Amino acid sequence: MVSSQRSREEEGVKKVAVFGLGFVGLPLALSFAIRGCEVYGVDVNADLIAELNEGITHHLEHYHNTPIQKVLKDQLEAGRFKATTDAADALANCNNIIMTVGIPVVNGEHLFDHVESAARAIGKGLKPNDLVLVRSTLVPGMTQNYIRPILEKESGLKADDDFYLAYSSERIAEGKAFEEFENMPTLVSGVDRASRDRAMELLGIVTKADLVPCSSMEVVETAKVMENISRDVDIAMVNEFARFTKALGVDTFEVIRVANTHKRVKLLLPVPVLGGYCIPNALHYLTPKAEEMEVPLPLLRLARDINEHVPQFVVSMVTRNLPVLAKEAKVAVFGIAMKDFSNDDRLSPALQVIELLQTTGIKVAAFDPAVPTRHSFKVDSLQEALEGAHGIVVLAKQDGIDYNNFSLFNKYLSAAGQPFIVDTRNVYERKVVEAGGFILETL
Q1: Which among 301, 394, 280 has a CA at the least distance from the CA of 348?
Q2: Sorting pLDDT into bands at 50, 70 and 90, what band is 8?
Q3: I need a labelling partner for 123 at 20 to 30 A (CA). Which of 10, 99, 335, 417 fits?
Q4: Contact 43, 27 (CB under 8 A)
Q5: Is residue 107 part of a domain?
Q6: How much is the pLDDT for 332?
Q7: How far apart are CA 229 and CA 218, in angstroms?
């Protein structure tokens, strides 16, 4: 059994290697660095590593009102954070290893390559008494049955005999990473109690909220997936409600607001499908194990199907308000991020809506000053998006977009027909929009 007792002199400053420097890994690495740890951030993307070591990141996180860009530069200057592609060097210098590498899902199929590569790299440099803490969202059972064998094979060591292995789910909301790493209750488990305790000790450096010990890694892996699926189901329900309220001729957002005055009701808001890696993929993390155990999950599958069809409903609201044929039309899209006030457009519902609009023949000009990704339909100013457009589609709220500049809208929008706004994010009041001469469509 690995020893769970090590002196402060032996331990010294905590040395942490974080594998994966995306929307989870980078703020997590900096959270440890801020608190005095020596942190190596490891990623295979050499361009990303070069940018980070220059103090450049496009993330929109803040730590106590300090932008992540300044946090990054401060920690680089202090020598507490270093980004590298050299996994072997990071592992040689650290005895706490955290994996935040994700599992992409493409057309319902899992791509395990990134997790496998990270596990192999970690295994090759693993030392006795090291802790490997997995914080990726996984198919339940995967830490024990997939990652552990790779680590043991590559290292020649045994979990719970020679090194510690633990799992703790990541629960942050993008844009609130620093705050929620610190204040969100955190579930922790391990291959044995010593591994769990070692992980709790490490996480306690950053987390002020409760560290919740769990009986097995499978419990935490499953809880993480179910947390995300519960939102998928809740939003599917309100997306269904939205179809009903629209047909009835009442405002969906008002219905939800007044329904939520009930003390035991907490309806979410409808959205034009859920974006990002977490919620849309959650069911796909559960289904492999469910199919293996022959558990059908009909309700969860139906909720996913409902949410996946909402973009088509958004497009139908656009096409029925066009004053010209689709092939002669243009729309301005405001916001392409996967959620409000984000710079992340991975699996964004906006991209799905735009693709469907383009399929009908409509020209799209989208403006989002926060998203760095280049797209053929993306423009650099609100004016360029509006010029000659027949209507506006709001797909995400974003700082830097003047949603209420109706004088600018009227100046640059096409004179053909009555202009319209399709608002999927509850930005507008109907009376204000209609007073400005616009048709307003909402979910």
Answers
A1: 280
A2: very low
A3: 10
A4: no
A5: yes
A6: 98
A7: 16
